[in-house]
Each structure stands twice: as structure tokens, then as C-alpha cells.
Design brief:
Elements: H1 11-14, H2 27-36, H3 39-64, H4 70-84
């Protein structure tokens, strides 16, 4: 069972928890590969993953709103991104 957040909560000690819903047999290898990257490569990987997540988010919006044109999808995208980033309304 996960430790509830609080002053003594240490995510590094909690993870991987035995209630992890998705087994990741190669996770340790992935972390080791990331550690071998140079700072520049890590930054490029972060940009790549950010772009991938945006593409997936947009694809999900297109599936959810098939009747929306590109301008409407862009409006929905920006509206939802503003909520995701906890920006004031």
C-alpha cells in the first residue's frame, strides 16, 4: 500500500509500490539508459516526449470531437492545456 503524502513521504522510497497497476519489466534498463545520456541528450529527449504527449492529446481530441474543424480543435486544446498547467482562469 502506498504511503500517504505528508512530511515523511518520500516518493523515491515508495516507488515501485507493490500495487503498481502496470508491470514494467524493462523499467530499470530504461532508467539506466537515461542516466547514460548527456545533459543535451536528456533535454532533447524531454522535448521529444513533450511533443509526443501533445500529439497524443490532440489525437484524442480529434477522436472525441470528430465534427470539430482545426480551429475548434485548437481552441479546445488551448483551453484544456490551460487547465492542465494550473494557470489562473
Amino acid at each position: 500500500m502506498r504511503t500517504p503524502p505528508g512530511p515523511s513521504h518520500d516518493p523515491a522510497r515508495c516507488y515501485p509500490c507493490h500495487v503498481d497497476p502496470k508491470p514494467r519489466p524493462n523499467h530499470q534498463l530504461y532508467l539506466e539508459a537515461l542516466r547514460r545520456l548527456t545533459p543535451e541528450q536528456r533535454l532533447l529527449k524531454a522535448f521529444e516526449l513533450t511533443e509526443l504527449s501533445r500529439e497524443l492529446f490532440r489525437a484524442g481530441l480529434r477522436r472525441r470531437f470528430p465534427e470539430a474543424d482545426e480551429a475548434e480543435l485548437q481552441r479546445i486544446y488551448l483551453e484544456r492545456m490551460a487547465k492542465c498547467h494550473n494557470r489562473p482562469s
